[in-house]
Amino acid sequence: MTEKLSESGRETLLAPLYETGWELDAEKDVLKKTFKFADFTEAFAFMTRAALWAEKWDHHPDWSNGYNKVTVRLTTHDVGGVTALDAKLARKMDQILT
Amino acid sequence: MTEKLSESGRETLLAPLYETGWELDAEKDVLKKTFKFADFTEAFAFMTRAALWAEKWDHHPDWSNGYNKVTVRLTTHDVGGVTALDAKLARKMDQILT
What we know:
The structure is a homodimer.
Chain A (H helix, E strand, L loop, with lengths): L6 H12 L4 E3 L4 E7 L3 H17 L5 E5 L2 E6 L9 H13 L2
Antiparallel strand pairs in A: 1-2, 2-4, 3-4
């Protein structure tokens, strides 16, 4: 979980995320997505649910919020790039919305 | 509450905030402060409490979080600058920590 994803790992784990709107900042090796909601209460409710998973997995997002938007950046600082744990948290964030 | 602060209003309302670590980005007319906590749970607990006040007052911060840090930017987009409502929310955020 804590090794930078290999090329094949990226194809397996990241390709499905690209289809739900995640993008890879290749230079920084960071997964990024902006979620939009109806209003602040929905945006913050999403953050709260995601925060519980992040803490449970001891893997925390860099994220920002302005009213109904939440921009998430996921990377594993310890290894300087995207790992399976980032993909797992990204998937969970998508699942929260379904 | 929704008019840009006058010069005298700034002296009255913002001067005390500067003493607690708030800074004014004069060009953008945005109040900014970075709060640091022991860990993610404390940082997110702060955000949660602040979020309730923000929603109650229908005045929401632009803020970002990475692990134990929360950077807050306050301005009133409707009037393009800092208002008494921004100062009120800034004071509340400080109070949450005391």
